[in-house]
Write a structure and sequence with these properties.
Blueprint: H1 3-24, H2 31-43, E1 49-66, E2 86-98, E3 102-112, H3 123-127, E4 136-137, E5 142-143, E6 154-158, E7 168-174, E8 184-189, E9 195-203, E10 207-217, E11 223-236, E12 239-256, H4 288-295, H5 302-308, H6 315-318, H7 324-333, E13 336-340, E14 343-347, E15 356-359, E16 363-375, E17 381-391, E18 396-408, E19 413-421, H8 428-435, H9 444-447, E20 452-466, E21 469-482, H10 486-492, E22 500-512, E23 517-521, E24 524-529, E25 534-544, E26 550-566, E27 570-585, H11 604-608, E28 625-635, H12 640-643, E29 652-662, E30 665-676, E31 680-689, E32 692-702
Antiparallel strand pairs: 1-2, 1-12, 2-3, 4-5, 6-7, 7-8, 8-9, 9-10, 10-11, 11-12, 13-14, 14-16, 15-16, 15-32, 16-17, 17-18, 18-19, 19-20, 20-21, 21-22, 22-25, 23-24, 25-26, 26-27, 27-28, 28-29, 29-30, 30-31, 31-32
Length: 707
């Protein structure tokens, strides 16, 4: 071997030896394999926390780069002062988490440089509630990349040169640029397979965010979040804000599942109650600034201290003298809460896009509501909820007041009363006339059937007989009076005319939720949900001669609802119902419990439970027997995201199939397709009557600020 060849061999040997540590640092397994191991460990429950209790400190800073008058018009935003561009807020919480997925946070103190309104922007507080192992993040808006149900929506890769003391860094990014997915992030896996750090970035309808979570292992419990850093760039309608926040957790104890009492089942196997008693610190904070000085775990920067410092004139009182127009505007566009010891009241915004919706069948509707609650001795509680609404198509004003007293918390025993202005309707005499008419000659718009106004009072008592089985008993009272010139119209039809009908009816409802999981908290039973269908049987018996009642009948309805999850965040909603009136005598009014139109706009959860969008409201009273069925399929990425990849605002897509059998309608069918976005929810529907095309219509609900 000549000298040149020897030099070459030595150099190659040295190159291989020097590069060995470099190649050794690159994991020899793929990111998908590592994530599969994480998902497997998650399925075994190795990341589940049984119970934890501790304190949380949040320091938030908001810098205003640009703003206009619209900024103070956003519901639940802090009220920004005209001459200030920099704000600091400190929040002190106590928190308690149990393995059945309930996180309770109680605010202990609140120190801020905001001079008006609540001074709190809740956006950053949401980031403090994140557990990377949760199925959904940020109040359910984001699909977690650490959950197997959503792994198909993310790409994973192992970073090159990423091992560090046995740790592996895995980067991820959403396969779609969609509002439900994180745009990017990474996680560190330690030797035990736990996530030691987690970073995520994403966006919503108003801002972009980045958050970093540092985890810590306490004893034999799985890793929990120890510190959070958040950056939010808010950019909406020309308003630009920079929000930064840091959160520090101080845990008193963290328990794994096998040591936590939260998973100690009782004889029925569904009781997830924690037997440990959590001792909350209920000492009232007289001066938040003094409390913050004594208890903050992180020091304030000099400029932060200057913003929070108040000498002589308090920052709150200094800004209290505001233009009355601002105060009026705040009342109009924001929800407001007024709390007292053991209770409070909350008003919905008077001007709120989510209070308005429009559909072809129902027209334009608006609602306003308030909630009053007050705690009593022995964990009892009183609640009152007034609601008002207006339907522009019917030119009708509706109102309702529902109050109840939780008197037996351990068995969910409630006594209550519900009264208000119900659906306008027509009597069975008109129903008989409708039955005799052919479908092609039946035109509800020509009949003007809103003859009787309906004032109702329902008094009830409800309690759980056993876990998941509830019994409601009560009485219903209705006073129906002729509306407008209805007496002349009825006389023209040759129908009997009576100016007032009174109905008194005992009422019974049996609700069965098999397999109901629950826990007992401070002597109060709290239901968590069931994996089985909910079955409800509702009966009512009209009686003559009681409080002037002149209507005798029997009504019976059966309603079954089932909601099931499908892999990938998809959901399937099923509903079936049947009911009718029997043993009818004299004049009666068809008024079903489940087959009716709610004159106030419904919540989305109720919409998914089964609603006929294009069915005229008069049909609900046009038969003394019915059969109904509904199927709704919900999918986040069904088709639109693939067809229009540049549009990123599709949150969910819905496919509807509704079926109804009534007299004259055998059957009535609706097919629909809907899409939900952060700003507006839209749906397109087509219906048929007796296998013939009936109507094409749509529904629009403004969803901005719906939460």
């Amino acid at each position: 071997m000549n000298r040149c060849t020897l030099y070459r061999v030595v150099f190659l040997w040295w190159l291989v030896a020097a590069a060995a540590p470099l190649f050794a640092s690159v994991p020899h397994v793929s990111a998908d394999t590592l994530m599969a191991r994480l998902f497997s460990r998650r399925a075994e429950g190795l990341y589940n926390i049984g119970e934890l209790f501790g304190n949380l400190y949040v320091k938030q800073r908001v810098k205003v780069d640009r703003k206009n008058l619209a900024l103070n018009a956003f519901p639940d935003m802090a009220r920004f002062d005209s001459d200030a561009r920099d704000y600091v807020t400190e929040l002190f919480y106590q928190l308690h988490y149990t393995g059945y997925g309930v996180l309770e946070m109680r605010r202990k103190a609140y120190n801020t440089s905001f001079g008006r309104g609540s001074g709190e922007i809740e956006r950053v507080t949401e980031f403090m509630k994140v557990n990377p192992y949760d199925e959904n993040l940020l109040q359910g808006r984001i699909f977690s990349p650490l959950h197997p149900n959503y792994s198909k929506y993310y790409n994973y890769r192992v970073d090159s040169l990423s091992t560090d003391g046995g740790r592996v860094k895995i980067s991820f990014a959403g396969r779609f640029d969609n509002i439900r997915l994180l745009t990017g992030g990474w996680l560190w896996l330690d030797e035990a397979g736990n996530v030691s750090e987690f970073s995520m970035s994403g966006w919503d309808e108003q801002s972009r965010f980045e958050a970093l979570y540092k985890m810590v292992v306490r004893g034999d419990a799985p890793a929990v979040v120890e510190r959070v850093s958040v950056d939010v760039d808010y950019n909406f309608l020309g308003n630009k804000l920079k929000m930064t926040a840091v959160g520090c957790f101080d845990y008193k104890y963290v328990l794994p599942v096998n040591r936590a009492a939260a998973f100690k089942d009782d004889s029925d196997g569904y009781n997830l109650s924690a037997s440990s008693s959590v001792v909350w610190d209920t000492t009232r904070v007289a001066d938040a600034a003094v409390y913050a000085t004594k208890n903050r775990p992180l020091p304030l920067a000099s400029d932060e201290a200057a913003l929070l410092f108040r000498d002589g004139d308090d920052a709150w009182s200094a800004n209290a003298r505001q233009n009355w127009m601002w105060d009026l505007g705040e009342v109009m566009i924001n929800s407001h809460s007024y709390d007292w010891e053991g209770g409070g009241v909350k008003f919905s915004p008077i001007i709120d896009p989510s209070s308005v919706d429009y559909s072809t069948g129902r027209g334009l509707s608006y609602k306003f509501s308030m909630n009053v609650r007050n705690s009593l001795r022995g964990n009892r509680e009183f609640r009152l909820r007034p609601q008002v609404g207006y339907n522009f198509k019917q030119s009708a004003f509706y109102w309702r007041v529902r109050g109840n007293l939780l008197y037996n918390p351990s068995h969910m025993g409630v006594v209550g009363i519900d009264f208000g202005e119900g659906n306008r309707t027509y009597s069975s005499a008109v129903l008989d006339k409708i039955k005799s008419m052919a479908l092609d000659s039946l035109k509800f718009e020509n009949l003007n059937l809103n003859y009787f106004r309906n004032f109702y009072v329902e008094a009830f008592h409800e309690s759980e007989v056993s876990n998941g089985l509830s019994l409601l008993t009560g009485v219903n009272f209705h006073r129906r009076t002729l509306h407008g010139n209805a007496d002349k119209q009825l006389d023209d039809y040759g129908l009997p005319v009576r100016k007032r009908y009174v109905q008194f009816a005992p009422h019974l409802r049996l609700t069965w939720r098999p397999g109901m999981y629950y826990y007992i908290k401070e002597g109060r039973k709290v239901n968590l949900g069931s994996n089985y269908p909910v079955v409800v049987w509702d009966v009512e018996q009209g009686m003559n001669g009681v409080f002037g009642s002149n209507s005798k009948y029997a009504r019976s309805e059966l309603d079954v609802q089932y909601k099931m999850g499908v892999r990938g965040g998809n959901k399937l909603y099923l509903r079936f119902g049947v009911g009718g009136y029997f043993y009818t005598k004299d004049v009666y009014f068809v008024d079903y419990s489940f087959l009716k139109q709610n004159n106030l706009p419904l919540e989305r959860s109720e919409e998914l439970g089964g609603v006929f969008q294009l069915l005229d409201s008069e049909w609900y009273n046009a038969a003394n027997k019915y059969i109904r069925g509904h199927l709704t399929y919900e999918a986040p990425f069904l088709s639109l995201q693939k067809l229009f990849p540049r549009i990123r605002l599709f949150q969910n897509e819905y496919v509807y199939y509704n079926l109804l059998f009534l007299s004259h309608l055998c059957p009535y069918m609706e097919l629909g397709y809907g899409v939900a976005t952060p700003y507006v929810d839209m749906g397109l529907f087509v219906s048929s009557q007796n296998a013939q095309m009936h109507r094409v219509g749509y529904k629009i609900t403004l969803s901005l600020f719906a939460n």
